[in-house]
Every structure is written in C-alpha cells, then in structure tokens.
Specification:
There is one protein chain. Helices cover 22% and strands 28% of the residues. It is built from 4 helices and 11 strands; from the N terminus they run βαββαβαβββββββα. It has a 9-stranded mixed sheet with strand order 2-1-3-4-11-10-9-6-7. Strands 5-8 form a two-stranded antiparallel sheet. The mean pLDDT is 97.
Length: 215
C-alpha cells in the first residue's frame, strides 16, 4: 500500500511540513504503507490508482494545474481516499469541487495559543484514543460555514478555552464524509512542528488516514 502526500504551497508555507512528512513516513514504517511525498502538481495528473490515499498536508493557494484537477476528480470518482490536514482548507479556493471535497473553507484564525478540543464522536479511528477534552496548542481555524449536517463531526473547538474564536458554539475541527465517490477525512489541527511529534496527534492522523484508505 502506498499513499501520496502532497505539500505544494502557493500561499503561506508552514514550517511544519517536513515534520508532517516525517510523521507520515514513520507511521508508514510502523503500519505497513509507503509514502511518496511531492510538491509537483503533475503527480496528480497521472493515474493515481496505485495510491491508497491522497493527503494534502498543509497545502495553500492555487496549487493544481487543470490536468491535476482532472486527475484528482477521477481518483475520487473511482473510490479513492482523500485526507486534508490543516491549511488544506485554504487551498484551491477558486475550485468549487475542492471546497465540496473538504466540506468547509478556512477564513481566519486567532493567534497561536493553548485551547481545548472536544471529542464529539469517539467511535472513529481518529478520535477513539483521545480524551473527551484534549488540551493542545494550535491556530484554532474558523471556517466559512459549519459543515455539520453534511459531514460526520468528530471533534470541535471549545471557544471558551481560548481567545478570538469566531464560530461560537458550533465549531467543528475534524470530520469525515463521502464526496464524489471518495472517502474524506479533514483535520484543522497541525500548525506547529511539535504537533507531529505528539503521539496523540500522530494517532489522530493515522486514524484519519486508515478511515479513508482505498479498499
């Protein structure tokens, strides 16, 4: 089994991207999958049938060629698995298909600070290992809409636990759904390099990945 980790950026570039690649590579060594990491849009233009999942790891901006868009759409339609991490939600903002694939779009975040993640659904590989309230430091993304009702919300932000939240009481941070034939998992967490050394965060990523892997 192989996964494709795509990390191209045309906007803000997170310094944690190399840490994320190392984390996925280590998880693959532990759990029996190989990782191809790339910045090249052309990697998405060709046949993707050999990949169990495609992961957009902290991508940003308009990063896909028309051919890469077509390749990703074809992969989804064929029952592929897609996973978005952190700033994947501020990627391809001019492409409606990608917004539907993710489920919501990033709009802003307050300063990096400690806060609390509330696990809403502990019956999922990405969250079943977590405590009901998970304290950590992150950017606490706000989105253009709450995707609740269209997706299965797994975890949300407790805005009372930090300053500057903009979504109120309904603030999903991690969710899964099926879109255009693909199984999809998204997590807003993962801004800092330190996150990818955190065993709980790594298990969160692994569970999300395992939930979308092409069968």
């Amino acid at each position: 089994m192989r996964i494709l980790v795509f990390t191209r950026t045309a906007g803000y570039r997170h310094e944690s991207i190399p840490d994320g690649i190392r984390a996925f590579t280590a998880l693959g060594e532990e759990h029996g999958f190989a990782v191809d990491a790339t910045e090249e849009a052309g990697a998405l233009a060709g046949p993707l049938d050999g990949y169990g999942a495609v992961v957009f790891l902290s991508t940003s901006g308009e990063v896909l060629t028309p051919e890469a868009r077509s390749g990703l759409m074809a992969y989804c339609a064929a029952g592929g698995g897609f996973m978005g991490v952190h700033s994947a939600a501020c990627t391809e903002e001019e492409w409606p298909f990608f917004g539907g694939l993710l489920g919501a779009r990033f709009v802003r975040h307050p300063r990096l600070q400690p806060g609390t993640v509330v696990v809403e659904d502990a019956d999922h590989p990405a969250t079943r290992h977590l405590p009901g309230r998970w304290p950590l430091t992150d950017e606490w993304y706000d989105f253009d809409v709450s995707p609740r009702g269209a997706v299965r919300v797994l975890a949300s932000a407790d805005e009372a636990s930090y300053e500057g939240g903009g979504m109120g009481r309904d603030h999903p941070l991690a969710w899964c759904h099926t879109h255009a034939g693909a199984r999809v998992f998204y997590t807003a967490l993962g801004h800092s390099p330190e996150a990818y050394a955190d065993p709980d965060h790594r298990a969160h990523l692994l569970g999300g990945l395992q939930s979308v892997l092409r069968r």
